[in-house]
Design a protein that fits this description.
alpha/beta; eight-stranded mixed beta sheet; four-stranded mixed beta sheet; 29% helix
Length: 522
């Protein structure tokens, strides 16, 4: 009898362990998505032993939820200095920045389970992975059957796009007003990952792919980094995905009329505020992954995991080249003041006049619990077309690149933001007279509609040279540092994503004639 009881207990423990290591979608036939506590319980059930896999924390959500970050690789501890000195290539992966887009979260839980089961061990020698399955933990738990109703599942509901502040976290990277993105940027400053992956699900675009991707798009990004990502790295990833029967292409939407006035496959997000663009301005490979809303929930999770695995395989096989590319980008950026001018405003432009694109129609399905109409790709309608593709960027307005900016010590919000971004600044110890460039405002327009709790400001004008006395206590920001592209994009008065645009200097215009930050060109 004792032996029988022991056998029953053994199988009960095994069954519980296996059940606990299933994700919530797996346990519910893909009707439900994981809540924050499910994620924590799943990670606990993995019994991370501190060998090749270690538990750390990225930071906290607005409502105080602690955000888990799992560190995977052959390193003795999770300290940033240890990982930077390891010589390994560091990759950061996050899910759920938009908490209704849950596939990245679920895919990363499955990947953690595979890593714990000693799969993908070939990554450990060259890579260190930092995996954050759930960035927007508060938005994740604001479940509603009516969030993203047209998406095909999970039919028992999902979280909301915004965080608990009502902010879109994927618009916050320049202004840093959310604790979640502030934690992300602190991680960048401490761990300095060479590659970041931001996992999403499409939000209304139509095409014929299982999954799409993007990379940093902005004309200020280092050209060598852009060339490598577009023309070397992603062709490797695409070939591997296609060999596994996944349909993949760059992220976009087919429009009958693009902003250029003709049909084409179009991508719209070039501003630094977006995660992958922001990372690109920091001279690192910023990758956006977008599973397709109109395939099944189960397929979306599977395609996301497949893309992440194939990206990691490509990173692992090209780690030396990637390190060389980002190192060169850093060196170029330290000498950015040698450029004549760079973009302060930009647009997406045609990159290929005759690109083959897959399109598919959708058919209507009905959510059995909410009664809402959902869309599902009609595989029988899949077709190829040849059309223009818009995946380039160009400047619509440029500004002269200075050697340094001088910031009055009264602009404490600007100074605090630069510190949070990781920018190096020097304090002016004694008053000095310089020949500087002062921006004379000819047009100062504030948007009528609120965007991310701001009314965006647009300045136009011209620079004038003048001799000016810089008071002691002012701040000098040199453009001889790796974050010079971020500095330029933040401090230029006409920048579409700078401190003027985001209202950081609204109180400091004085009589409204001059922008308060001076730039020194020579």
């Amino acid at each position: 009898m004792i032996i029988v009881k022991q056998i029953v207990l053994f199988f009960s423990v095994c069954s519980f362990s296996l059940f606990a290591q299933q994700t919530r979608p797996e346990r519910t036939n893909y009707e439900e998505t994981s809540r924050y506590q499910d994620v924590i319980d799943f990670i606990d059930a993995l019994k991370i032993d501190g060998a090749s896999m270690k538990l750390s924390w990225l930071g906290y959500s607005t409502q105080g939820k602690r955000l888990p970050m799992i560190v995977y690789g052959d390193v003795p501890d999770v300290q940033p200095e240890t990982i930077r000195k390891s010589g390994k290539l560091v990759v950061y992966i996050q899910g759920n920045i938009h908490a209704g887009e849950v596939e990245g979260k679920e895919a990363m839980l499955e990947l953690l389970r595979e890593l714990r089961a000693a799969k993908h061990t070939e990554w450990r020698r060259r890579l260190v992975l930092l995996i954050v399955p759930i960035l927007n933990a508060d938005g994740n738990d604001m479940i509603s059957l009516h969030n993203r109703p047209w998406q095909h599942g999970p039919i028992a509901g999902m979280g909301q796009r915004a965080n608990a502040q009502g902010l879109d976290l994927n618009r916050d990277h320049m202004k840093l007003e959310s604790p979640e993105v502030l934690s992300f940027v602190r991680m960048l400053n401490e761990y300095d990952p060479h590659v970041t992956l931001d996992l999403h699900t499409t939000n209304g675009s139509f095409h014929g792919y299982h999954i799409t991707y993007s990379f940093a798009l902005n004309p200020v990004i280092d050209q060598g980094l852009d060339d490598y990502t577009r023309n070397v790295f992603f062709p490797i990833v695409e070939a591997k995905m296609e060999s596994q029967k996944w349909r993949i292409h760059r992220y976009g939407d087919y429009l009958e009329k693009t902003p250029a006035g003709k049909p084409g496959y179009f991508f719209w997000a070039h501003e630094p505020r977006f995660n992958s663009n922001y990372v690109g301005l920091r001279n690192r490979l910023g990758i956006l992954c977008e599973s397709y809303s109109y395939i099944s929930f189960r397929q979306r999770i599977a395609s996301t995991k497949a893309l992440v695995v194939n990206i990691l395989d490509a990173v692992n096989g090209n780690s030396i080249a990637i390190k060389e590319v980002v190192t060169k980008a850093d060196e170029n950026t330290k000498n950015i003041h040698k450029y004549d001018s760079l973009a302060v405003r930009a647009e997406v432009v045609e990159s290929n006049p005759a690109q083959e694109i897959l399109l598919a129609a959708v058919k209507e399905d009905r959510n059995p619990y909410s009664g809402e109409i959902m869309f599902l790709m009609n595989e029988d309608s899949l077709k190829k077309i040849v059309t223009a593709e818009f995946y380039g960027t160009r400047a619509t307005k440029k500004a002269l690149v200075p050697k340094r900016y001088i910031i009055p010590d009264s602009l404490m919000d600007v100074i605090a933001l630069l510190r949070l971004q990781g920018v190096h600044m020097d304090r002016v110890n004694k008053a000095m007279t310089v020949i500087g460039q002062r921006f004379v405002i000819s047009r100062n327009k504030q948007g009528e509609r609120e965007f991310q709790k701001h009314k965006m400001r647009t300045l136009d004008g011209t620079f004038e040279s003048l001799e000016q006395t810089i008071p002691a206590g002012s701040y000098s920001v040199e453009l001889n540092q790796p974050l010079s592209r971020i500095v330029f994009s933040l401090l230029e008065p006409e920048s579409e994503d700078g401190v003027a645009a985001w209202n950081f200097v609204d109180r400091y215009f004085g009589d409204g004639k001059y922008y308060p930050i001076l730039k020194i060109v020579n």
